[in-house]
Amino acid sequence: MPRTRQLPDRAELRAWRDFIETTEALRTVLAGRLQSDTGLSPGDYAVLLALSEAEHGRMRSSELAAQVGWERSRLSHHLGRMERRQLIRREKAAADSRGAEIILAPAGWTAFREATAPHLRAVRELFVDALTPAQVEAAADIAAALREHLERLGHRS
User: Fold this and answer.
1) What pTM, to 2 d.p., does this model score?
2) Among 30, 77, 79, residue whose Cα is nearest residue 51
């Protein structure tokens, strides 16, 4: 006989809603602050961060999509907008003509460097300063547990 899954109880649902609503509010405020302080969207920043950490500031588009957790079509459209702003360049992959490499352009390096300090100050103000050191550690533990659970269920983060 198939086992039925128990639904969350009232307290679990409250915790879930508080978690979702608060993280969404935090993301919205951080995104607004990033945009107003730097002119970059969170998506721009995620792409620039990934490329800044890649060897020689370049990465295959498929790897970049996995790194930022986006579908390739979403990434492609976003990269087009970033390319028009000269933050990145796309080149055919040398080893495989079917793929493309995304390269962090000089304007992208500059934009990323200029955005990092204001963005990290906002993270400090809106997230770190609101919590005790033990709560920051607990938040990291919770995030890791959720990520591992999703991976066990076959979902990549």
Assistant:
1) 0.86
2) 79
